[in-house]
Amino acid sequence: SDETCFLVLGLYSPPTVRIIHSGHACNVEEERYTERVYTIREGETLELTCLVTGHPRPQIRWTKTAGSMSDRFQDSSVFNETLHIAKILRTQGGRYYCKAENGLGSPAIKSIRVDVYYLDEPVVTVHQSIGEAKEQFYYERTVFLRCVANSNPPVRYSWHRGREVLTQGSDKGVEIYEPFFTQGETKILKLKNLRPQDYANYSCIASVRNVCGIPDRSVIFTLTNRTASPSIKLLVEDPIVVNPSQTVSLVCITTGGEPPPVLTWGSSNDSLPQRSVVNGGTLTLPAITSEEAGAYSCVASNNVGNPAKKSTTIVVRALKKGRFWITPDPYHNDDNIQIGREVKISCQVEATPPEELTFSWLKNGRALRSSERMVITQTDPDISPGTTNLDIIDLKFTDFGTYTCVAALKGGGIPEISIDVNISSTTVPPNLTVPRGKSPLVAREGDTVELECLVSGKPKPIILWSRADKEAPMPDGSMQMESYDGVLRIVNVSREMTGSYRCQTSQYNGFNVKPREAVVELIVQYPPTVEPVFMEMRQGLGRPVVMTCRVLRAHPSRVLRFEWLLSNRLLHAGAFDAQRDETEYTVRNLNRDGLGEYTCNVINEAGAGKCTFLVTGKAYPPEFYYDTYNPVWQNKPRTYSFKLQWTQMNPNAVDRIVAYRLGFRQMGLERWWVQEIPVDGPINKGELMSHNLTDLIKPESYEVRLTPITRFGEGNSTIRIVRYNAPLNSTALTNSFHCSFEDEPICMFTQDKNDDFDWTRHSAATRDTKYTPNTGPSVDRTGSKQGFYMYIETSRPRKEGDQARLVSPFFNVAPKNPYSISNPPAYCFGFFYHMYGKHIGEFHQTSKGQTSSEGPVWSLNGNQGDHWKQAKVSIHPTSSFQVVLEGIRGPGIEGDIAIDDVTLEEGECRDPPTNLSSKVLFRSSHIWLLCVTLVMTLLEGQR
């Protein structure tokens, strides 16, 4: 039958998490205590899955520590259960954290260390030393062969000469050693005072001992009497000075080296230009630009000695930024030009290369030579590069005219720069004013504004703009902007640009006098910034709804008015109260006409800020309960049933939920099956609801959609996938159950609230045996000191006869014939026990929910020796049941009882142990009582 059980119980629980792995692991080690190391070969697929419990369903987030800043874990976190990295790189090793949180309690975090194994091809480098003694006929040549390979784990090296294995001491002329400063990284082969037999093929074999199936790698080096380090020659000048757009070829040749060296090119700009072409020893740079200027290096390497390197610098000719300034008589404190006084005209350009720069002067278009009254000088390039001066001493009326400064490069090919400077009776220093009405300048956010400073004088200098009231950059990001007409144009002005702007005359293109300056105030108005920008408000019909729109900031801050609208229909408008920063609208009695989108516009001179409220009677989505014990059970050979459980999010926020619409479909098929589940009475927060999905086809998965219904109509739906093998529930497999107590929360076992003390989860590595050394297990059932088990500690304050009871989760069963209990199904319950110590008391195993009165189905007492034994007992439940494991304290402290590897399987026990005396006792039950029993048990647990 499709009965629905309601359990009045707060089922919200904080998250728990554990990590399981798939993919291509070489090994997964459980190191001491909590460290887990997952070993994987570079290039394989890493797949880690986070298994979580908790209600509501926790959100999962994968993050990573370790590694450099550049190795940011895929630039973000991964927000799903499975972390999948295809073709893992060595840089992606490190510690991975899985974090689960659902807003209850602290987040649950588990981590695993991923170690990526690899072995690169080894490289042999050769170094030679030659020693001479002048007065003797003595000549020594020693060769060092060094082998290096990048690897994880550390590599081991072996040397061979031809087919002969070389070891320390095997040949007097050979030494093999590890240099102290690179312990374990390299293996050096030293050939002392070369002999004829030393000229041979040497092979270095690098090995990581086949970890992760990584094969050994080897490299061969042939040593001859001609072996020599490389030498090269550059067939170019240094530096090379060229014109832009010219094609430049650099030629590098090898002049020595055995084996023949390999040539490579590099640049001081980190990488070669994109359009460059390398052909052996020739580097070609077509149509070179100024950005491609710099140092270029040819490097030759043959792994013998040090690589040979030769460099040259390419200089690309350029002339730019021509500027001038006029300096009135420096000996008189006057800013004007006067007859009979001295005037200096200065001219400056940026030139590459600076030594090729030449200047010439013209007056009214005719060449000007240096004389006693017209002194032409070129400033020292080290002090002020690229500058020339024309000093006019004792200015006469005939000296008025146009003076032209011409800059050129000796090499040619670059257009000249000429700068005209007019000296006349109208040449006067600048004056700077802000036009009337241009300060303060008021604009709205997003406008284009023009800040203006009027500059008079002849010639007009460049105007420099900067922020006057704060150390903030200008709109283009620089600290200073130039303007040739005194206007600063700002496109798309923003509120951050409000403030004072300084305009200032530069010495360029004008008089070299004390700068003139003025300040322009810019005020940027913007519409009110309000909150909330959007809010969904869910409410039942007939109830009040209060909406509040708050102003955070605005300019001008004097807000003019507000207006409330429902779907563009004006409800209420008025002046904004200057004493308050918010406006409120109340719907006293919500009806269907009052549902919809409400807008509050708060308006000032610059525009409107908008709060939006979506008022709806929609119910919140239900929250599926994923931690159901035994959600899957068998009812027919080809079908299975699934117990679907959920709670309702915020059930009292809207009208009472009268039903749920349940839709489900087989994965991969289009057709949905839909039915309604009626709800009697109001739903409490945290109340667990159940519905049995029956006749699901094995082993298909199903998509389930659940939608709450109120008198408003349908609420928000929730979707989940139901799987036959229920992989996300470690305590509830389809036909078997296994618990080794390795993870909290101990497979949903609970401590009985009415016993005298509790069972404790422990491992031999963490248990203190100082007080009771001759009792309790020294390893878990598998022989591991790190493995966990449950045990009862009999030391004080325990006293004889005290009981500790551990209660299993509920196991759902389906009788073969649901209308008769004459042929109940059989299950085999098994566990390992350890009863060691002279004061061992009693151990009982009981089943709750059998047919007949409750009592032990298995018991044992006394010392059973320092080893684990297995117990098995067949049980025949007719309804859902629990198993109770009870330990009773004996007469002294040497009597700790432990259990491990608890199992429950379908079918009779095949090989029940012979040393057990067992009797089976039952308690009557019925399907409708299952709900009540479950309610009572869970309620007791909540007290």
From TrEMBL:
**In the record, what lineage is assigned to the organism producing the protein?**
Eukaryota, Metazoa, Chordata, Craniata, Vertebrata
Note the SUPFAM superfamilies from the entry. Answer: Concanavalin A-like lectins/glucanases, Fibronectin type III, Immunoglobulin
Extract one GO molecular function annotation from the record.
axon guidance receptor activity
According to the entry, every stretch annotated as the Fibronectin type-III domain falls at: 627-728
Q: Which UniProt keywords apply?
A: Cell membrane, Disulfide bond, Glycoprotein, GPI-anchor, Immunoglobulin domain, Lipoprotein, Membrane, Repeat, Signal
Please tell me one Gene Ontology term that the record gives under cellular component.
Answer: plasma membrane
Instruction: Kindly indicate whether the keyword Cell membrane belongs to this entry.
Output: yes
Origin species: Takifugu rubripes
Q: Topologically, how does it sit relative to the membrane? A: Lipid-anchor; GPI-anchor
Ig-like domain location is 15-115, 122-207, 230-315, 328-424, 430-521, 528-616
Protein known as: MAM domain containing glycosylphosphatidylinositol anchor 2
Matching CDD domains: Ig, MAM
Give every MAM domain span: 737-911
Look up keyword Lipoprotein and say if it applies: yes
Source species, domain of life: Eukaryota
Query: Where does this polypeptide localize?
Result: Cell membrane
UniProt record, GO biological process: homophilic cell adhesion via plasma membrane adhesion molecules; synapse organization
